[in-house]
Amino acid sequence: MGGRVNEDLIKERRKCTFDIKELTHIIDCGEENTIKRKQIDNYILNIKELWDDVPEEYLSHKERYENAIKKAFIVLKVLRQLHTGNIQITDHRTPTNVYSIQDGIFRNVNPLLIHIGLFWSTIAAQASTEQQAEWLQPDSSMIGTYVQTELGHGSFIRGIETTATYDSTTDEFILHTPRLSAYKWWPGGLGNTANACLVMAQLYINGTCHGLHIFLAQIRDFDTHKPLPGIKVGEIGPKMGFNTADNGFLGFDNHRIPRTNMLMKNVQVLRDGTYVKPKHDKLTYGSMLLTRVTLISDLAYQLSKAATIAVRYSAVRRQSPIKSNEPERQILDFVSQQHKLFITIASSHVYRVVGLWMWNSHKRVTADIHEGNMGQLPELHALACCLKAISSRDASALVEQCRLACGGHGYMMASNLPQIYAYTTAAVTYEGEYTVLLLQTARYLVKFWRLAAEHKPLPQNFAYFEDYIKKNFEQWRNSPEGIIEGFKAIVAGKTKAAYDTLQCNLRNGREFEEAWNMASVQLTNASEYSTISRNDIEALQSRYEELLALIRPNAVGLVDAFDIRDEVLCSTLGAYDGRVYERMMEEASKSPLNEDVVNESFHKYIRPVTMKNKL
Ligand SMILES: CC/C=C\C/C=C\C/C=C\C/C=C\CC/C=C/C(=O)SCCNC(=O)CCNC(=O)[C@H](O)C(C)(C)COP(=O)(O)OP(=O)(O)OC[C@H]1O[C@@H](n2cnc3c(N)ncnc32)[C@H](O)[C@@H]1OP(=O)(O)O
Ligand SMILES: Cc1cc2nc3c(=O)[nH]c(=O)nc-3n(C[C@H](O)[C@H](O)[C@H](O)COP(=O)(O)OP(=O)(O)OC[C@H]3O[C@@H](n4cnc5c(N)ncnc54)[C@H](O)[C@@H]3O)c2cc1C
């Protein structure tokens, strides 16, 4: 759509005091990545079939899925071409090769996300070399998903009921769903798209349960796509978001797979049924760990989208004068609006940096594990748990804050803020629910507080526990170092409080698990504080309003530096040109309810009532 850039935005960009491109290169981890990202964006933007102009809100549940699948397989074909063309394309904003531009294509989620983000990555991480050679062919017919959660169990995965029983007479595993609560429920792409899946099931050999293991199972015929015998599969229905993905359900009726379909990099079942244990019994949980790590970067990217939309709109929207005898002001001039939005820009940068640090930490620890050293795994797990929990809670809260800061127009689907919120808030639940993961980190904190309380040696990362006990903390200084020291004191204090409550519950005769449950609110609080979150930064930094004023002239420049294309933002409020009202009117004209001057419902339902006895 043509037309002049909004005058207020032009002025805002003139006010900017830093080099926007330089910040974009920092966000992309280098200018060469910016160039590569733009190449990919342009390449995919030129595929016309991907950019329909029928808003998905006007499609049926079925049409929305079919439209998304059409696009997903165009993208998959392109990715295969690019990869086979040896162009290693990595979008450093989400170091998972999840291409930022996909948000624009699907406006919701790519139905192949779990195929790309969990199915392949789990095979690459947990299948043996021979299995990878067989299953990871670039032109494979397998379209997979990751099938763990059941109707009856999501958080407590040791309670998963699906069984995989070894039959030595035929050298097979028998996958079985013993009851309704054991039906797999939720996996992305399972309902209609996937023809294969990685199933998390309880392994049984000669009546002994060896716990959860991962098995590759084909569930549909590669050629006809019909479910195989013994497979009951379908789609779970509409959700709050993610409605371009067919999350599904799956039941096995004594479905047989070869023994060699158990992922056997870290653990083996030999032909005679011998079970060869893994070096660490949580290696099977590795895909959850990796996804939690990747989610931090993705959430940072969702924040950058919401901030871009809300800040640009706030620079364009004029509402209410500050002095009655003056013109209406840009709402971005209201300090309360700056308070709502600038923390979102900051949080996007914080979680992008943390996400990249965690991504590199995961690579380092994975290399150690490959060498047989499991020592760093517990800390990586504890960090991934609290960081995924806090980043998803912060991101969903801040995206909603951005939506609310845009008034009624933020409530329009055409603003794209509702979809970004629906997408982001799901991350508080999936891949490990918020409270459940915070309690995992609490286990780790309590373990080291116990050592500190017993004056035993502590790893360097927990030296501050000892400082706290010896009251070595300095007076709070209003500087970054002072704030970090303050946080350490808060975490130590919260951990001590939870630990003391735990000890008190035990002294009162409670068993450990009950004592833990009774202290769980304090335990989650300690975990939350082990991660600096948005509210804490505001609360701690005096001169806060002065800092908002410092940011104000650069606010639009800061979001322009995220360099998110209009086609990806998909937002009437956030487009680069700021022509909000023209875009809103253009989107409204697409509503099917504007096709007829008088909708047929008038004659069918309204007129017989309103004109009764009047003709
Ligand atoms: C797909 C993403 C791709 C790319 C990302 C990019 C963008 C993202 C965008 C969209 C993503 C889209 C869709 C998301 C798809 C969602 C998929 C899913 O949700 S898959 C299912 C996820 N399910 C879970 O996460 C379940 C949560 N529950 C658990 O993890 C476990 O039940 C729990 C850890 C809570 C407990 O396990 P349990 O076996 O009971 O252990 P216990 O608590 O007794 O602890 C024992 C011991 O083990 C340690 N430990 C536990 N887990 C791990 C681990 N993963 N790694 C290492 N160590 C672990 C634990 O600390 C404890 O140690 P100590 O005894 O304390 O020493
Ligand atoms: C959009 C989306 C996509 C998903 N994709 C997949 C997928 O591809 N593959 C897959 O396998 N799964 C997937 N899931 C499922 C997801 O992993 C589960 O929903 C998640 O693990 C939570 O489990 P649950 O829903 O059974 O909730 P539950 O485990 O029943 O928890 C419900 C509530 O109980 C409380 N609670 C539970 N346990 C504890 C505890 N120990 N202590 C304190 N409180 C507790 C918490 O408040 C929690 O919110 C997806 C889910 C969503 C929403």
TrEMBL record:
Record Gene3D superfamilies: Acyl-CoA dehydrogenase/oxidase, N-terminal domain, Butyryl-CoA Dehydrogenase, subunit A, domain 2, Butyryl-CoA Dehydrogenase, subunit A, domain 3
Keyword annotations: FAD, Fatty acid metabolism, Flavoprotein, Lipid metabolism, Oxidoreductase, Peroxisome
Cofactor annotation: FAD
One of the GO biological process terms: lipid homeostasis
UniProt key word Transport: no
Pathway note: Lipid metabolism; peroxisomal fatty acid beta-oxidation
Residues involved in FAD binding: T149, G188
InterPro entries per the UniProt record, alphabetical: ACOX_C_alpha1 (IPR055060), Acyl-CoA_ox_N (IPR029320), Acyl-CoA_Oxase/DH_mid-dom_sf (IPR046373), Acyl-CoA_oxidase (IPR012258), Acyl-CoA_oxidase_C (IPR002655), AcylCo_DH-like_C (IPR036250), AcylCoA_DH/ox_N_sf (IPR037069), AcylCoA_DH/oxidase_NM_dom_sf (IPR009100)
Domain Acyl-coenzyme A oxidase N-terminal: 19-138
GO MF, one example: FAD binding
Span of domain Acyl-CoA oxidase C-alpha1: 285-446
Residues in Acyl-CoA oxidase C-terminal domain copies: 528-609
GO cellular component, one term: peroxisome
SUPFAM superfamilies linked to this entry: Acyl-CoA dehydrogenase C-terminal domain-like (SSF47203), Acyl-CoA dehydrogenase NM domain-like (SSF56645)
Pfam families reported in the protein's UniProt record: ACOX (PF01756), ACOX_C_alpha1 (PF22924), Acyl-CoA_ox_N (PF14749)
Location in the cell: Peroxisome
Active site as annotated: E431 (proton acceptor)
Similarity comment text for this entry: Belongs to the acyl-CoA oxidase family.
Protein name (Swiss-Prot/TrEMBL): Acyl-coenzyme A oxidase
Organism of origin: Bicyclus anynana (Squinting bush brown butterfly)
Lineage, opening ranks: Eukaryota, Metazoa, Ecdysozoa, Arthropoda, Hexapoda
